[in-house]
Amino acid sequence: MTVKSRILMSVAAFALAGATPALAQTEIQWWHALTGANNDVVVRLSEEFNASQKDYKVVPAYKGSYPDTLNAGIAAFRANAAPHILQVFEVGTGTMMSARGAVKPVHEMMKEAGETFDPKSYLPAITGYYSTAKGDMLSMPFNSSSMVMWYNKDAFKKAGLNADAPPKTWPEVFDAAKKLKAAGFDKCGFSNAWATWANIEQLGAWHNVPLSTKVNGMEGFDAVLNFNQSPVFQKHWANLVDLQKEGVYSYSGRTNTGEGRFTSGECPIFLTSSAFFGNVRANAKFDWANAPMPYYPDAAGAPQNSIIGGASLWVMGGKSAAEYKGVAKFFSFLSDVDRQVKLHTESGYLPITKAAYEKVKASGFYKDKPFLETPLLQLNNKEPTENSRGLRYGGLVQIRDVWSEELEAALNGQKTAKAALDAAAERGNTMLRQFERTASR
Amino acid sequence: MQKNASFKGLTIPLLLLLPQLAITVVFFYWPASQAVWQSFLLQDAFGTSTEFVWFENYQLLFTDPGYLKAFWNTAIFSTFVCVLSLSIALLFAVMADRQIRGAEVYKTLLIWPYAVAPAIAGVLWIFMFDPSLGMLARGLGRLGIAWNPRLNGNDAMTLVILAATWKQISYNFLFFLAGLQSIPKSVIEAAVIDGARPWRRFWTIVFPLLSPTTFFLLVVNIVYVFFDTFGIIDTVTGGGPSGHTETLVYKVYSDGKGGSNLGGSAAQSVVLLIMVIGMTAIQFRFIERRVNY
After folding, report:
1. pTM check: above 0.80
2. Which residue of A267, A404, A438 is the best one to mutate when testing the B interface, meaning the one whose CB has the most B CBs within 10 A?
3. Is the ipTM here above 0.95?
């Protein structure tokens, strides 16, 4: 190196050091998919963490919708430029864990980094979804929700229904919806967002019915879907088809774009995510509440427990020990009881630790806001079974599309409910077999 | 006119061609060859395991009923969009070409929709025709017409055809108008003197003289419906309900991005590539013969 270039280098280094005073900081890239108020939460958490210590700096970056963020992470990994932390929605869990070397399991990272980490302090209904069959935590739950039944109290009064005693079972919901239809809600008595989350995934867990063999895919990629053989599924889908024809049920699409039908007053009973509450609070011009999802009273053991939705934070593979230490510190920071309490009460995300839930309960917060506790009551209704811990299928994003296609085919009268269920399982199995080939080697 | 303008040696012509060649190779041939290579592989999303499977991806493709359905959807969709957008644009262009007051304003307004991005165009049509939100959908409901693109495949297909046609009309209009204005007035005046009525003048003089424009637009429109309508389909229906609006290009996307099935998705894009090459070749071979330049 010549003298001149050495001088230049030191000038450059000096200039850089001047611009960023903490040159020794390790940067931790965090790619996420949250917008609006939820994005503010991400930014605030990063800032608080960065202010709390000076060795690491978490840098959040918004990468688009959940599927976009997942794909951005995959593409970046292929180009050796993966972030440290990738937020992935729950249906991407199978895809993430199948790639050995692409991700660093959270339990492993916490242990190596020497962080205190007790898997038992987390709510099992939440972490179970993101853990191996043995209970090792693979990713860190971040924003979790569950599906609940929102209802319009004013509409209930108008139809002569008791607004303080919402229907508990599906037959009661059907009756209420028929009365609501007669009372002027003639386009839509009840509906739901997230077609397959409601009518396959939650339906199975809530009634303790398996979706497939191998503990809903948690114990291996060779799982075979068999929900089509369940009487609960057959009955529920047949009911939906009949009620769609009568105009009592009205399909609202595969994602949550139909949620506006509740807030606009069109659909007085609407099953969707508990995270919908911010939207309801802001936009519904009527008295509202939520209640646990309905169930079929003749199904043995129902209701069991609901499963979560939302997203978790995955740690990408191939990073240095120092970087993992920073990520581990950040995860400990996120799991802190007071921070979880604050996150839950302010943003409506479910708390991920037992201690945080207990603390909020003890504070009497839920007396004023019972709608925030409904999803937690559902999730903790019973000890999760093999059928209600969650589900894990590779390529679930697209399998969900296929399931939706079949549900739509039944609802528009192209197929019977039974034929659609059979096709949903069969087509899903074809895709699972294809995924198995790429994942098991 | 000098016919054989030639350079001495190869250096200068090659240098002049180089930028274009480089762009073509980097942005077209290289990605296309990658797609062909990928279509022979079975690979997980992260690329951690790869297996060479020869033509298995293609075999799976042609046994997939969803793929055959996508072919059918594409045929319906592209026929309707091409025919509708070309004929409506031609009608508008002929009307706007006459001496009328405010013609410039009409022309400018008719061109505007072209500046709208496909995804935005999709959202605009949702606002009009969403069964819950849409003004026009509510109007249809009041008239007693059942309208539900959420579940009814034909309704959904109608909606994406309308949106895609609307978006393309202005482009076609622009070219037809320019084509009409380049037709010598003397020819038409001669026909008028011979006593030909407007209808006859149009079919025997204007339409044949417009054929180079029509042919060009046909090629461009087919490429448009095959590829550029993706944004509209994605925002309006997402390929639903029950796959009724899933076209070939949309399936490439949903299998590759949603399903992380890169091999299958690459195989589909190769099929699509061959199809478009074939169709363009057929157009030039057979239809171009009937074009009067």
Report:
1. yes
2. A438
3. no
